[in-house]
Amino acid sequence: MSRIKQLFQTTRFKRGTYSSGLTVLVLAIAIVFNLVVQQLPENLTTIDLTENGLYTLGDQTKEILGNLDEDITIYHVVQSGNELEMITKILNQYAALSGRIKVKQLDPVVNPVQLKEYDASNLSENSLIVESGKRFKTVSYSDIVEVDYSDYYTYGSDPYYSFDGEGEITSAIDYVMTDDLPKMYIVTGHGEQSLPYALTSSLEKNNIETEDLTLIAQDAVPEDCDVLAVMAPSTDYTEEEIGLIRSYLEQGGKLLAVCNYTENDMANLYGLLSEYGLDIGQGIVMELGKNNYTQHPVYLLPELASQQITTPIVNENMLVLTPYALPMTVQEELREGLTVENLLTTTTDSFASADYDLQKTEKGSEDAQGPFTVGAAVTNETENGTAQLVVYSTFYPFLSDYLQITPANADLFVNSVSWMCGQKSTVEIYAKSIGTTSNTVPAATTNFWTIIFVAALPAGILAAGFAVWIRRRRK
Question: Residue ranges of the ABC-type uncharacterised transport system domain (predicted)?
Answer without folding.
Answer: 182-381
